[in-house]
Amino acid sequence: MPAPIIVLNGASSSGKTTIARALQDLWPRPLFLTGIDTILLGWPESYATFPGDDGSLAEPSTGVRIVRGFGPAPSWIPEFGVDFHSVMRLAHESWASMSKGVNLVIDHVLIDTTLRNQARDTLVGAFWVGVMCDVDELIRRETDRGDRRVGFASGTSAVVHREMNYDLVIDTTATSTELLARQVYDAVMAS
To answer: What is the dihedral of CA 58, 110, 23, 31, to 10 degrees?
Structure first.
């Protein structure tokens, strides 16, 4: 059997979830989808701070603080505090444990050194996929989605691939989801 864990790492709106769903359809046994969004959706709003409408900086947080990113404006990025990193450490450990009984595809956005180190140290034997996409296309997709603050695609694209090594790199800018999922599937099966 191939690697028990596939990690899709890429910017917000790069198409990771769509590729993961297509992989589930190809997989010869159940492939469980999880990822950082699962944790973010469960994160209490009282432990997240946002910039003010007047441009003022977000207050520091032990959870999640939204700060200016390094991509084309508007550009925002989550800055994770010690409490959020602790929860993500537990998430990585639980995913590693789950992989002993079920195959996993993890939809991830590894934007800081702590998350990258946790993931690499814990998800041993994972198949790592770098999901690339042109920043203008990311911004277009994010704007069309309408379900998140515009600027996360730009902000995360500037940092998500730093210090990363991948088993496979794919580009979602203009290639179909079905073809990309097949590329990932074939590469994992051949590993």
So the answer is: -90
